[in-house]
Amino acid sequence: MNPSRAARVLALPVLALVGIAAAMTVAAPPATADQAVAVQECDGVTVVVDFTDLGGAVETGCAEGDPGSGREALESAGFTPVDSQPGLICTIDSQPDPCPAEFEGSYWAYWQVLDGEWAASQTGADDTDPAPGDIDGWRYNDGSVPPPLPQTGETDASGEQTSSDAATDEATSAPAEGGSGVPVGIWVVMGVVVVGLVVGLVVRRQRDTES
Asked: Looking at the structure, do residues 117 and 42 belong to the same domain, yes or no?
């Protein structure tokens, strides 16, 4: 076999390996901020405030009892809203800082959990009367993306919150039923490597025969 041809043959599986590795890297899903956030049991209204679009974190609180409005629930949960004009909340816990003098596309959008999913509130926080067991949410953006869904958790001996949703934990940690737990792409890469080794061995034997 011609040496240059042998080199080209040997290079094919190597190039394939590089291409597959690159494809697997690109296909990796990016991390998002919309994952479930753990909250403690609340006898009143659970409040989730998402500061991530302002460079902060997702914070939660509990408005004990039966607050009379969404604003009251927000305040009872430990947050401080400030209006830019009556009835229009501009900042929560002084965020954003400063309060925009003009509307720039983002605002504190008010959400409520209905049937396990976030739904944009059809009324303002002053006119909404959440009931005990309800979940209110706030996120500063253009109103298109809600805060993370809350997930009830318990506090362990170290003070850390642990999720009580065993089904979610099991689905996250266990491989799909009937699968080996090894991604298909890994098997493909291993196959390409084996092919490359075989081709290399054939080329070497061909060279020994010719010599």
From this structure: yes
| Tokens describing residue 16 | 């394939």
DSSP state of 53: G
Please name every residue paired with 117 in a beta bridge, in sequence order, or none if there are none.
114
pLDDT in tens, 72-126: 999 999 999 999 988 899 999 999 999 998 999 999 999 999 999 999 999 999 9
Q: Are 178 and 89 in contact (CB under 8 A)?
A: no
Range of the domain at 130: 37-148
Cα separations (Å) of 49 from 87, 116, 166? 18, 17, 25
Q: Is 174 inside any structural domain?
A: no
From 14, 67, 17, 22, select the one nearest 45 (Cα to Cα): 67
The token pair that represents 102 in the structure block: 């003009």
Name the E strands within the chain. Answer: 37-40, 45-50, 58-63, 81-85, 88-92, 107-114, 117-120, 135-141, 150-155, 161-163
Contact 148, 35 (CB under 8 A): yes
Q: Does residue 55 belong to any structural domain of this protein?
A: yes
Which pLDDT does position 39 carry in this prediction? 75
76 and 48 assigned to the same domain = yes
Number of domains, the chain: 2
**Are residues 104 and 143 both part of a single domain?**
yes
Question: Maximum CA pair distance of the chain?
Answer: 93
